Amino acid sequence: MGQPPNVLARKCASRRYLALVASKWSLLVINALDDGPARNGFLMRKVEGISQKMLTQTLRDLETTGIVKRDDHGTVPPHVTYELTPLGKSLRQEVRSLVFWVESNVPELSATTRS
After folding, report:
1. What mean pLDDT do residues 79-97 have?
2. How many other β-carbons are positioned within 10 Å of the β-carbon of residue 26?
């Protein structure tokens, strides 16, 4: 059996997953999926400032790692929804905590940020 995962180790695969889930867009998309399944257009409106290209890439990366499930309803016009998997829902709890911390500490963070 190998060594346990350690994000501080340069060659550990956990570092790649940390980079994915800790990216700004991943955190925002996971947060946007908090209320349940959503379509692409909804996510574009909810996550202000994200480009279509970045949203598509983020959703693909999160789907590849099993955090988001893509459901193509097979209709014309296309109807595709995205939702968090059980693994994604467990991550959502951590994202909620981080978002709450950031939003709660904006005054302190802003006061100490240098321009």
Report:
1. 96
2. 21
**Whole-prediction pTM:** 0.88
pLDDT at 76: 86
Question: Residue 63: which of 50, 80, 51 has the closest Cα?
Answer: 80
**Size of the chain in residues:** 115
Q: Count CB-CB contacts under 10 A for residue 18.
A: 13
Residues sharing a CB contact under 8 Å with residue 21, sequence separation 6 or more, in sequence order: 27, 30, 65, 67, 91
Geometric angle at alpha carbon 87, from 16 and 72, rounded to 5°: 100
Exposure letters 78-99 (e unless 16+ CB within 10 A, then b): eeebbebeeebeebbeebeeeb
12: Cβ contacts below 8 Å, ≥ 6 apart: 5, 6
pLDDT attached to residue 80: 95
As given in the structure block, the two tokens for residue 7 are 């994000």
Geometric angle at alpha carbon 50, from 40 and 13, rounded to 5°? 90
Residue 29: HSE in the Cβ half-sphere, 13 Å Cα cutoff:
31
